[in-house]
Amino acid sequence: MPQITLKDYLRESRLFQHRAITAAAAVILLLGFLMLRLVDLQIIDHTHFTTLSRDNRVKVQPIPPTRGLIYDRNGIILAQNLPAHSLEITPEQVKDLDKTIESLSQIIHISEKDLKRFQRLRKQRRRFDSIPIRVRLEEDEVARFAINRHRFPGVDINAKLLRDYPMSYETAHVLGYVGRINESELQIIDTSNYSGTSHIGKTGIEKTYEDDLHGQVGLRQVEVNALGRVIRTLESTPPMPGKDLYLSLDAELQQVAMGAFGEENGAAVAIDPQTGDILALASKPGFDPNLFVEGISPSDYKDLQSSEHKPLFNRALRGQYPPGSTVKPFIGLAGLETGTVNFTQKKYCPGFYQLPNHSHKYRDWKKTGHGPINLSDAVTQSCDVYFYDLAHQMGIDKLHGFLKLFGFGSKTQIDITGELGGLLPSREWKKRARRTSWYPGETLIMGIGQGYFLTTPLQLASATATLATRGLKNRPKVVSAIKENGSETPTRLPAWPAETLPHESDHNWDDIIHSMTQVIEGLRGTAKRIRTPEYRIAGKTGTAQVFTVKQEEEYDEEKIAKKMRDHALFVAFAPVENPRIAVAVIVENGGHGGSVAAPIARRIMDKYLTEEPM
Amino acid sequence: MNRAFQPSGLRESNPTKAEGLLADLHLDLPLLTGLVLLCGLGVIVLYSASGQDMAQVQRQAIRLALAFGVMVVMAQIPTSVLRRWSPWLFGIGILLLIAVLAVGQVGKGAQRWLDLGFFRFQPSELLKLAVPMMIAWFLAEKSLPPKWKRLATAGFLILVPVLLIAKQPDLGTSLLVASAGIFVLFLAGLSWRFIGGMILTAIPAAWALWQWGMHEYQRNRVLTFLDPERDPLGTGYHIIQSKIAIGSGGLYGKGWLNGTQSHLEFLPERTTDFIFAVIAEEFGFTGIATLLLLYIFIILRGLYIASQAQDTYSRLLGGALTLVFFVYLFVNTGMVSGILPVVGVPLPLISYGGTSLVTIMAGFGILMSIHTHRKLLPT
Hints:
The structure holds two protein chains of two kinds. Chain A is elongated, with a radius of gyration of 37 Å. In chain A, strand 2 (70-71) and strand 3 form a beta hairpin. By secondary structure, chain A is an alpha+beta fold. Chain A folds into two domains: 62-247, Penicillin-binding protein 2a (Domain 2) (Alpha-Beta Complex); 264-276 and 317-475 and 498-610, DD-peptidase/beta-lactamase superfamily (Beta-lactamase). Chain A has 22 helices and 23 strands. In chain A, helix 14 packs antiparallel against helix 21 (506-521). Chain B is globular and about 55 Å long. Chain B has two domains: 30-76 and 226-372, no CATH class; 86-214, no CATH class. Chain B is 69% helix and 1% strand. Chain B has helices at 17-24, 29-49, 54-76, 79-106, 123-140, 148-166, 171-187, 192-213, 216-226, 236-249, 260-263, 275-308, 312-336, 355-372; strands at 114-115, 120-121. In chain B, strands 1-2 form a two-stranded antiparallel sheet. By secondary structure, chain B is mainly α. The A-B interface holds A 8-9, 11-13, 15-17, 19-20, 23-24, 27-28, 30-31, 33-35, 37-39, 41-43, 45-46, 48-50, 52-53, 56-57, 223-227, 231 and B 143-145, 183, 186-189, 241, 243-251, 260-261, 263-266, 280, 284-285, 288-289, 292, 295-296, 299-300, 303, 306-307, 312, 315-316, 319, 323, 326, 329-330, 333-334, 337-339. Chain B: It is found in: Cell inner membrane; Membrane. Chain B: One of its GO terms (biological process) is peptidoglycan biosynthetic process.
């Protein structure tokens, strides 16, 4: 038996040896196969995986540029970036969030609204992101938190730059405002340059000059971990800040213009007639643009939207009003230049005007009539009948052609977005828009600036400036200089080429301007109350109908609701000899131009011509 | 076998003092050297992979000390004793697996642990040793190669624990336990015709397993293995990041402590199942090649010891334990480098964690015992 065991033992041992060698060979073979795989990954595809590994960990973060500042003509700051402090919590670093917020609210006011926003943001962001629980902290709140900071690990004060408009209401319609970039803006902006930017110009200069104000984004290459947490900065390119803008606007004049309206609504535009520089551009009422910067609350926005005073409506650029009698000097000049009338020839005013073979009576504002009256007096006293006849004789085509030269009916191309062009009616326009032919009666009422005729305050001011310079038509502009990056002084923008209107005779212009001075200086001038010994003013009052009086009815100011009352207008320039300022003022439902609008214009001209800047 | 894998203590005429001590402790110097080098390397890599977490490194060092202790203890037990214990150990293991499943019914989800209050014990680990011991004991009763009937019984003995573990579900461990049993059969002289037949049956069986035998997450693992990009942020993420780590390591690696994939947490499970990728990233192809040579040395030494054993039981058990060690290595590295499915098997002796470490070292203890308890026979 032991022999058999020994024989088995040898056989089994040999069998095992074979199997063990087979296994060892398999082991080597399989590990060789693994090595081939590693050669493939680590040597052949090494570059590819190195790129993937780098893409994993290196992220590019944008550094937003600081937005350019906006100054007025005297260097007063109109738009700036102020550090705003917000109280932020990093949830990851806080043990008991509810308890922390509760103790925080004992030293800093936290409203229901703040809490809601915090909870909303918390869901969107990552645990190591800090989330604001309060924004726009007051100075004393910042100080109070600073003392207690040690009690709140994971809570910190964060300062960021927020756009701020120190003059608030007064410059809102000129500067516009910035707000958070919305969906439709995302479609049009250069997303790489805006990658770190949250705000964009929404209206006004902020929008028109967005490209200059924004600047160039900077980039920071950072190393991040799998959760996106930044471990360290690898390299960075600093951003290029936005360019500063210098406006032709005079902040103090703007303030005066806004203030001069008192409780009234309306608009005033002041232009330097020699250059087209906008000196003041007021639209009353204004609104607080700072509300829009961090996102306006729905209730505030509703208040602004639903107010019957329409504070968001830029009357200076977008308000389209019948020019009323303020258009008479232009029509008078048209009459002279086209040879339709001469300056001294008189027409008879019985207090109304009738077209031949028509019974309709076109009334004069003065029921008793002006009697025999020449062009000069017709401007001074604003005789309607004279201009009915002049318009009738000249005809719509000539009238339209001449007024068009002054820019009526088309946009002035000012460098603020959103401007409207008004409406200068013509035969073609009527055929196109109303599908009827032009009626002679429509020419008459156009002669006194009524009917279809609509102008914006800016157009009126611009046309007045053109009249003041005897035909030098400048394109109005607000931004006069831009400070390029790194440069010490601002560079003046090149002047836009001015257009010179054709002159038939210089006398005609002198005569019309003379008649406009009589509006202020003449005994029966409609704006004689604003006469001043300091400088000479040429102007024209106007009243624009909001409400049509029926043929046999009287217009009784007292009986008509305020919002149905006429708009009061006034255009003027001064000094007559060497015009430095041209102004157009409209007071909505103000009544008479001479009594309501003219004093506002006078206040603006006084400020500009006689008072030294503070 | 190569001369390098020959035992040191036997043919030398005058052993040194240190060799004498090793012989007294029943330890095998070449195997011990390989294991110490590998574990030392593991600790160095873990220090980097854990993000220089000294506490984690210390815990692993304590486990290593414990595992080496277990190895030394196992080396003292003669194989004749082990052989007698084999059926009992197997029986206890099966009962514990049933107990785990019973407890698992209570707590939802995967249940692998048995909480003994002071100690959490994973019975499936015990089976990694008990199954090859049992099959070796069973086959060594009669002469080899085994007859058809014995083979069928042995197959059944393997299948029971494998199915019990797969049901936990623990795919990785059931795979290792199954391979341990199958290696014993293979080393016992399973006929090549039978092996070929099994492979031919395996294909429809695999299909059946896919259809009815797999959990959804296991099927997903297979699918994402075939195409990791299918779900780059979910199951495929592991493999994609692991391949990036390995590939970006290049020939010489990014240097110790400089692996970006691991340090910036892109690589998941970087101290445990995916630690191989950390080595590949930091030490490159050269580092990996060195590591694999170390593993090959240990495996060949193990197979040599088995082939030198004096009885069938020891040969079968020693060979099977060595080959299971290789399965650990290949399944893990194959998974991490994207040539095998994602199966949770650690890189032996390097991955952080204690359970499998103790089992593996116990296995090496058995190998040392096989080698050092031989009776010198006259040649």
